[in-house]
Amino acid sequence: MAAVEVAGECSGKRNEAVSDLGLAARGNELVLRTYFLLASLVIGGGGCGTYAKLHPPPPPGTVLIERDREFAQFALQHGMANAFREFAAPDAVQLPMGELPIRGREAIFQAL
Q1: Residue 81: exposed, middle, or buried by beta-carbon count in 10 A (0-12, 13-18, 19+)?
Q2: Dihedral over Cα of 52, 54, 55, 59: its sign
Q3: Which pLDDT value is given to residue 61?
Q4: How far apart are CA 50 and CA 44, in angstroms?
Q5: Chain centroid offset of residue 47 CA
Q6: Do 7 and 46 belong together in one domain?
Q7: Pairwise CA distance, residues 88 & 111, whole Å
Q8: How many other CB atoms are there within 10 angstroms of residue 40's CB atom?
């Protein structure tokens, strides 16, 4: 009977040791996953701000002024109605004074 109790005590300790190894393995896995995540962020995210540093955005209004100049040049060469047709959004709306709105780039072009 003593042998059975000793075997029981040994197997209990063995189970505890196996259980502790399982917890340690899970802990190591969590640590490894955390390191992998941090390494991925450092390596992968390192270039996120590079483009903005190398190519800063143009000063406010610069793009608008440039497009306006392109529109004016096109209007001089092809006429104002054609320039409007070329540069207006497809869903543009014209609001003529005292009249109903004209919807759509092509409808506005026809009205010009």
Answers
A1: middle
A2: positive
A3: 82
A4: 12
A5: 14
A6: yes
A7: 14
A8: 10
> Are 46 and 6 within one domain?
yes
- Dig out the tokens for 61 from the structure: 């209004």
Contacts of 47 (CB under 8 A, 6+ apart): none
- Find residue 94's DSSP bridge partners: 102
Is residue 56 situated within a structural domain?
no
Number of domains in the chain: 2
Pair 74, 41 in one domain: no
- The predicted model scores a pTM of 0.46
- 106 versus 50: the higher-pLDDT residue is 106
| Residues 109 and 85: beta-carbon distance below 8 Å | yes
Assess whether pLDDT exceeds 90 at residue 59: no
15-53 pLDDT per residue, tens? 554 455 554 555 677 666 766 665 665 565 555 556 667
Domain that holds residue 83: 62-111
